[in-house]
Amino acid sequence: MPAHDTRYEVISVSLPRDLIERANQVIPKTRRSRVIAAVLTTFLDSTSRRKVAEGYATYYAKRPGREVEAERDLLAEWSLSDAEAWAILDQEGRRGRRTAR
Q1: Do residues 32 and 23 make contact, with C-beta atoms less than 8 angstroms apart?
Q2: Could you tell me if 73 and 66 are in contact, meaning their C-beta atoms sit under 8 angstroms apart?
Q3: What is the distance between the alpha carbons of residues 77 and 80, in angstroms, rounded to a whole number?
Q4: pLDDT by residue (tens digit) across 19-64?
Q5: Cα-flanking dihedrals φ and ψ of residue 12, to 5°?
Q6: CB within 8 A of 62, min separation 6: which ones?
Q7: Residues 6+ apart with CB under 8 A from 32
Q8: Per residue in 17-41, is it b (16+ CB within 10 Å) or e — as a string?
């Protein structure tokens, strides 16, 4: 009995014959459905990520210039140099704290 209950649905898809022939040559028959499912899942995930990225791009494009500049200034103030980071790690080591991995 499977460890998890996953429901599958049989579907029919029409694809170009040359694409099917190329897939049949490359993908072993026993793994074909898993490979197709993985490719389709990857495609759908990338599509959703692209939509999110487009949404962020649209949001940031609509922001006023002053707001963008203020955010950049805040980020510049919070930037940490390598020397400052090493100094913090050295202090943590001297205090007997476990160093970050």
Answers
A1: yes
A2: no
A3: 8
A4: 889 988 998 888 888 888 888 889 999 999 999 999 988 988 888 8
A5: -120, 130
A6: none
A7: 23, 24
A8: eeeeeeeeeeeeeeeeeeeeeeeee
pLDDT of residue 100: 57
| Eight-state DSSP code of residue 81 | -
The Cα 45–Cα 26 span in angstroms is 24
Tens-place pLDDT, residues 53-88: 999 889 888 888 888 888 888 877 777 778 888 888
Predicted confidence at residue 86, as pLDDT, reads 84
CA–CA distance, 24 with 20 (Å, rounded to integer)? 6
Position 79 scores a pLDDT of 73
Q: How many CB atoms lie within 10 A of CB 5?
A: 6
Helix (H) or strand (E) holding 38: helix 32-62
